[in-house]
Amino acid sequence: MKKASTLVVTFDGLRRDRATAELMPNLAAFMKSGVNFINSRSIFPSETRVAVTSTVTGAPPRDHGLVANQYIHDAVVQGRTFQTADYKDLMAADAIGQLIDRKALGERLSAAGKTMAVVSTASPGATWMMNHKARTIGHPVFSVHGEPISTLDLHRAALEKFGPVPADATPNTARLDYACSVLTDIVYPEIDPDLCIFWMSDPDSTSHAFGVNGAETEASQRGADAAFGRIVELWRSGNGPENLVVMSDHGQITGVQQVHVAEHLPQYADRLSIGSFSGLYLENQTPETLAELVKYLSEQPWCGLIFAETADGQVIDGALPWSAVSHGHKRGATVGFTLRATPPSTESANRNDQCLFAAYIQPGGGMHGGLNRGELSTVLAAAGPAFVADMVSEVPCWLPDIAPTLLTVLGLPTDGTSGRVLTEALVGDGRVPAVEQRTLTAKIGGHEQYLRQWLVEGTAITDCGWTGGTGTWRL
């Protein structure tokens, strides 16, 4: 065990209110034992590859530049959207310096003579972005998708020790168990990294198929929790990392009806990237053009929150500014919008939040990408000698705060990150930042938009966003 070594375990797509003692007893017990960040949030768009990049760079999309799971990136590909799920697109962008604009954890640790390992059952693109320079800096990666996502030596060692990787499934428990064995029986005894990311694709992948509350999704949570129990045993034995951090990248809500967005915007067919968060990439960006488009979108009963501003940062009537959600990178969309979702409620935390969707799931499947609280609410907790024990932190935090906190634990500088070191959770520090609250609004015609946010030392962290008003289709 190396001093200050840390393992980050991620439960993809796990919203906080689903991390119950009934479904995930190992996780629930761990969250009580260390510091539990009960107001942790994702980023926008709340999509996996964006979330991965925000986590490892300590920066939001405005700063790192991987602006959505898919988007128009003419410098890399023409005639189609740039796909962050495809490692070949990621490699092509990186080769011309058009992938991300901030250094990631792997690069930082390598420069300091430290090692970072990745063990993942996530998609090839998500795993690639956890340490996109791993193959050039010599850091080990294991992916259930094999080479070249995995690095050669680690993948072959896994195959030799455990045999073939199990087939993909929902729930994906067999793959999670396999990856967990790679972590506990190869990575820690043979590599002993300073930092490791262990990423579990469940409950996200199963929830997409069967819904947030589906029996199969609950089974996937139990399977992920069992794997985590093995990791906790390794940690407590003293044969793993000193510190253990658990997180999720986003939550999920229920998709109830598909919207064929392109049919409503045929004139922009070649400049439209469609998803839970959709973007229009316009060449003609006059204020008049933007105002006309925003007005049209606001009149559509399926349209949720709209983001737009002029090239010089002026607000467009009826839209929220990109800066409000730490977006607005030069590679980002000119105009972006979500699809409608249920507004926040004082009902039970386990309420079935719903949304329209543009993805190819069946109605009732889980969705994410927008600003509903169910999509943004995440798990974040930590324990070990670096962290305060038995603490519930109400201070809001988000994914970009994770990297600078990890760097501080490892004794490395945080320059170039945009997030905040979670000082309130660190032993020997304990500084609690000032927190304010605000609600941003934008209204045009009968379309109303709201963003409820915390301001933590001046940084806006979105709690949730929603739409209202008259003339809009209601879920």
Q: Share of helix among residues?
A: 25-40%
Structural category is alpha/beta
The CATH first-level class of the largest domain comes to Alpha Beta
- The overall average pLDDT, rounded, is 95
Count helical runs: 15
- Strand % is 15-25%
CATH superfamily of the largest domain: Alkaline Phosphatase, subunit A
Could you say what the CATH architecture of the largest domain is?
3-Layer(aba) Sandwich
Which regions have little confidence, pLDDT < 50, spanning 5+ residues? Answer: none
Inertia-based shape: globular
Total count of domains: 2
- Main beta sheet strand tally, sense and closure: 8 strands, mixed
- The total of beta strands comes to 22
Classify the oligomer: single chain
Provide structural commentary.
The protein has 15 helices and 22 strands. It is of the alpha/beta class and 475 residues long. The chain folds into two domains: 6-76 and 84-251 and 372-425, Alkaline Phosphatase, subunit A (3-Layer(aba) Sandwich), CATH 3.40.720.10; 255-371 and 436-468, no CATH class. Strands 7-6-8-1-9-17-2-18 form an eight-stranded mixed β-sheet, with helices on both faces. It has a four-stranded antiparallel β-sheet with strand order 11-12-14-13, with helices on one face. β21 (447-456) and β22 (459-468) form a beta hairpin. α10 packs antiparallel against α11 (215-237). The mean pLDDT is 95.
Summed up, what is this model?
By secondary structure, this protein is an alpha/beta fold. It has helices at 25-33, 48-57, 61-64, 87-95, 105-111, 124-130, 134-137, 152-162, 173-191, 204-210, 215-237, 261-264, 287-298, 373-376, 402-409; strands at 6-11, 35-37, 40-41, 70-71, 82-83, 116-120, 141-143, 195-200, 243-247, 253-258, 272-273, 277-280, 303-308, 335-339, 354-357, 366-367, 380-383, 391-393, 397-398, 435-444, 447-456, 459-468.
